[in-house]
Specification:
heterodimer, A: mainly alpha, about 0% strand, B: alpha/beta, Rossmann fold, four-stranded antiparallel sheet, about 40% helix, globular
Chain lengths: ~240, ~250
């Protein structure tokens, strides 16, 4: 008997959905595409920077560090506004016509994700003992070999850094709203609408149950990415 | 032969090693003894071609080390194995640790292939790795994670790691200072075996008995260069220098 109750209980969430076909899938895609590429680019940029900062002393290093740490607290709307100025028609990158595109969203999320990824990676890299570096060098390693050893030793910290960056990127709403515009095509397929901007829109329209469902999807996505990365890290340590 | 001629090393105002002359031949064990803080580690780092001395010259097999280019120096450095006071193993399996010196000597395409294979499954352990783990009696720990080893085992793996790529010279910085007698025995045996294979060994130690057990020659470092350097027997039985005499007999306390 209880079985027959279930459709009735779930119906507000599943049956009455006003979503068009492919709509939810398209905003998930846009969210993952934008945040994934932004975090990948951030990682490619941040890790070499963290390695260089961890390995060398140069004048102004402390200043660069404080800039990065400040960057961790950048309000995303301010970043969005700055990127908007840069990519807008009168801005320096205006000719590229990036405004209200996924590429503009990638730029702003890159700016948001880079400080936490760099700062947390740097902490992990400086945490690797000097003795380990000496050992790699003594065994005949080149400078690049030593750097690779340090990255490998710091891999858990670096994985945490990437997760923190991804978490910041996929969950922020301010900058993607400003530079992306929360746009769908006429057929209702997302162009620059992400899960966060969709939730914001649904909530503003009073569609609280659809907003809740999208929120649950976002949460599930973040959990899945975390689980995969953590799992990947564990596997790595067993196979080495 | 590694040859240091009138080598000094200063950090700022402070001179740590002063005017040291020392040569190490293949197939001999030279012990450097002296109290803590007298510059033994710095001397070893100069021998390992890590530190550029502030004065004097370092030659390895007839080549002047610090007038050579960086690539050349890397090749020279690769003839030397160093075991530090702390094992400092990488966070990987014992086999991967011991293999490291071999791996960095491989061209990049081989290393890349090796890495890709290791994702699919094991691609076998090089013979040299097994052999050098045999020397320290830890071949059965091949697949174990380095962080699960005891301190003594870790130090033995660290020794095997430096031995695996068959260096011409081996430098040991207080290799047994934290070890129990059994692990100390294993390391000392391994040192003698390395010597018999023609490797020139330098051991920095504050343990005079160890020097007496394994060294062919002993240098006594008491602050400003060697007070005396010569055959082990002479140094312990018949030292000519007063301070050496006092140090050996335990009268010179630092």
């Amino acid at each position: 008997m209880s079985v027959s109750l279930e459709p009735a209980l779930l119906s507000p969430a599943l049956v009455d959905f006003p979503f068009r076909e492919g709509y939810v899938r398209s905003i998930i895609y846009v969210s993952l595409y934008v945040s994934g590429i932004a975090v990948a680019l951030s990682t490619l940029f941040s890790i070499p920077v963290a390695v260089v900062m961890g390995f060398t002393d140069f004048p102004g290093k402390q200043f660069v560090k404080s800039v990065i740490n400040t960057g961790m607290g950048f309000p995303s709307v301010v970043v969005g506004l700055l990127v908007l100025f840069i990519v807008s028609n009168q801005g320096p990158l205006g000719s590229l016509e990036l405004i209200f595109t996924k590429e503009a969203m990638i730029i702003s999320q890159f700016v948001l994700a880079t400080p936490p990824i760099t700062a947390i990676s740097l902490a992990a890299i400086t945490g690797v003992s000097e003795n380990v570096r000496d050992a790699a060098r003594a065994l005949g390693g080149t400078r690049l070999d030593v750097a690779l050893v340090v990255i490998k030793e710091a891999r858990y910290g670096i994985a945490t850094a990437i997760l923190a960056g991804f978490g910041r990127a996929i969950s922020e709403v301010g900058s993607v709203l400003i530079v992306g515009g929360n746009i769908t095509s006429a057929s209702g397929i997302s162009q620059t609408r992400t899960l966060t901007t969709a939730i914001q829109l649904e909530a503003r329209q009073g569609q609280y149950d659809t907003a809740m469902v999208l929120g649950a999807v976002l949460l599930a996505l973040v959990l899945t990415v975390n689980a995969v990365v953590v799992r990947f890290g564990d596997e790595g340590s067993v196979n080495q | 032969m590694i040859r240091l001629s009138n080598v000094s090393q200063a950090y700022g105002e402070e001179t740590v090693v002063e005017d040291v002359t020392l040569s190490v031949d293949p197939g001999e064990v030279v012990a450097v003894i002296g109290p803590s803080g007298v510059g033994k580690t710095t001397l070893l780092r100069i021998l390992a071609l890590f530190n550029r001395p502030t004065a004097g010259t370092v030659e390895l097999d007839g080549q002047s080390v610090w007038s050579a280019g960086e690539d050349e120096r890397l090749q020279l450095r690769r003839r030397v194995g160093t075991v530090f006071q702390e094992a400092s193993l990488f966070d990987a399996s014992v086999a991967r640790n011991v293999e490291y010196g071999l791996r960095v000597r491989q061209p990049w395409e081989n290393r890349l292939r090796d890495t890709l294979w290791s994702i699919v499954g094991s691609n076998g352990t090089p013979k040299a790795v097994k052999r050098s783990l045999d020397v320290v009696g830890l071949r059965d720990k091949l697949d174990q994670q380095a962080r699960s080893l005891s301190g003594g085992e870790a130090q033995r793996v660290s020794f095997a790691r430096a031995l695996a790529y068959d260096p011409s010279y081996l430098l040991l910085d207080e290799p047994t200072s934290d070890l129990d007698p059994r692990n100390t025995d294993v390391i000392e045996e391994a040192v003698l075996e390395a010597r018999d294979r023609g490797i020139g060994v330098v051991v920095a130690t504050h343990d005079m008995h160890q020097a007496e057990r394994i060294a062919d020659r002993v240098g006594v470092l008491l602050g400003d260069g060697f007070t005396e350097i010569g055959p082990t027997e002479t140094i312990f039985e018949n030292p000519t220098d007063d301070r050496t005499q006092q140090f050996i007999s335990g009268e010179l306390v630092y």
